[in-house]
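Entry 14. Structure prediction run on the chain below.
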Amino acid sequence: MDEQTLVTPINSRHRDLKALMAPFGGWDMPIQYEGIIAEHAWCRQKSALFDICHMGEFIFQGDFEAGGLEDVFTFSVKSIPQGRSRYGFLLNDQGGIIDDLIVFRLAEDTVMIVVNAATADNDFAVISQRLKGGAFTNITDATGKLDIQGPLSRAVMVDAFGDQVAEIPYFKFITMDILGVEAIVSRTGYTGELGYEIFIQADKVCELWDLLLEDERVKPAGLGARDVLRLEVGYSLYGSDIDEQTTPLEAGLGGFVNFDKSFIGKEALLRQKGEGVQRQKVAFKVSSRRSPRHHYEIYSADQQVGTVTSGVFSPMLGCGIGIGFVDGGEYPVGTPLTIKHERVSMEAEVCELPFYSGGSVRF
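Output returned:
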């Protein structure tokens, strides 16, 4: 392992479980334990536990408008009700996505901002530069995060921590005592299944990991299964599907941009909106079980029109699926495509997102 690679507090637990480890976003992370397909199935059918301690967490406390936070993201912070969270973007001046993130409204004057691991340091610097006041703190090192996801996760959480967990609606959270410390339990996730994200002190996260895995309904899952799960429900992965050269409009994520407020990058997006996007995201299904891969070429009528950004074999659909970006033009559902790379060639057709909509996420 490289000396620069970071480790989560649960790293030794993964190694004890003989997980296949690999670098991800600068962190040494578990890719799989017993296997990607098995872990994917366990999450879709029962309850899977993910180590997400590599994510970044910041706290802002102060007046959202006077402190400048209200103008930082593509959504309004001040209109988030206490106990709720909101997804959106941090953009550059050109409208490119510096990061996608979620903001949790903890109190009248306090929010927690949860960002991607690889971009956390840059996000903190960019947001700091844009603020005019308030207290802005990076609590990443002090914070542990576990995601428990799957249709049985509510029952597992209730049995472990009490009935109040059962009352949390989708995209809401509560603060509660877990293992003698204050923790945030949020009804959010990245899998398309019913689930919870638990934020707890870093020095308690190993104990929480062990406690949840004592339940026979719960098994650990790695980033391999997580990638298949998130792509089946059409969620974007930062660094693959979205980045600083991609705008929310190109990525089909304009619904998370509030044009009725001010934010960095708004003028560029308004121009793009008026002129029309020159490249756009498409989703496609392959006509076989073969997996399209990142950087494979997308062809339409023998012309290369784009590039695959994410692709996997979908156990739920029984075929390869992927998303990518194509040059301007019309690509209605059913449009035939060919996915190529060197000697690989597979037939595909444009489809709608999500690929899989049978999950328990809103149960």
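The mean pLDDT is 97.
Filed with the rest of this week's runs.
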